[in-house]
Design goal:
The protein is mostly beta strands. It has no helices and 28 strands.
Length: 328
Amino acid sequence: MSFHRTVLIGLLCILPGSGAFAQKAGWMAPTGGYVFDAIARSIRPVVGFVGSAYLGPASVDGIEWASLAPNRRSALVVRDAVLFSVSDLTAPDGTETLDLVQSPRQALWSADSRRAVVLGADGQLVWLTGFGASVTREASWSFDAPAESGSDDPRTWFLLGADPAADKAVVALQTGDRWRVWLAFRTAAPVSLDLTGHPAAAAFSSTGSALFIADETNHQVLQIRDLDSQPSATPIVTSDVYVADPVGMAVAPGDGRLFLVDRTSHSIRILNPGTGELLDELPLDSAPRSISGLSATRFLITAGDGTNAPFYFLDTEPAKVSFVPRGE
C-alpha cells in the first residue's frame, strides 16, 4: 500500500470559541488537521495560516474512502476493498491491516477516538477498539433482513450515525424505494424502528440519550427517546421548506442546537432540538452533498459537483461556516 508522508510547516490549530450563538457565519479558513478528498481519493492536510489556508498534497492516497478520528491524527481507510488503520497521519507508513470486516463500507468514531463502528457487507456491523496498539473486534451484529420474495431490487446499507461513545448506531436498508431502520447497540441486539419515508440523516444528542432522524419523504425531523427501552418517535419539525432535501445533521455539545444541512436551499438550518423552532440559518455557496464529523464541535461539509469546489467547515461553538479551497 502506497502511503506518502507530508511535512506540515506553519500550521495553526484554530480551536472553537465560546461566543454567543447570535454570531453569524464568518468566512475564516480553519487550519490544522486533515480531510478526506473523495475526488482525489486521498487524505490531505489543511496547510497555511488563517485567511490563506489550502489543502496540501496527499498524506495517504489511492483509497476508496476514509474515516478520520476526532483526535486529528488517526484514520480508518479502505484500499482495494481492504480496511487499514492509520495511527499517525504524519507518519502514515505505519499501518495495520484489519481483516476484521468483510467489504467495509462506512465507519464512525467515538468522541475519544478509542472506538469505531464499521458497516460491512450485507449489513454487518462491527465495533473495533485498541487503536494506537493492536486493533481488535469488540462486538458485531448482522441484521435480520431477508430479501423480499420475488423482488429483484438492489439492497443498499447505510450507517447514518453513532452516539459519542460509539455504543449505539443507526443503520438503514434501502430496497428499491422502501426503507428499514434499526437502532444497533454494542452490547445488545438491534431494535427495528417503526418509521416510514426516507431516513436521509441522523444525529445523536451529546449524551447519547436522544436520536434525531431527518425524513426526506415526509419532510420531518423526528426526535426519538427511550433508546434503551422502547424507542418512540415524535416529529419536532414538519415542513417542506425547512426539511426539503436533508443531507446531514449535527448536534452541538450541550444539546442546545440541532444543525440540519439542506441541499436544495444551500443552507444549514439551526433548530431548537426540543421544540423544532428555527433559530438561525447559515448560507452555503454550493449545494452540500454530505457531512462528516471532525470533532465534537467541527464538521466537514462536502459541497458541489466540480473538482474545484472548496471544503466547508461547520463549527457549532460558536455557530459559523468557514471554507478551505481545494488547492493544487
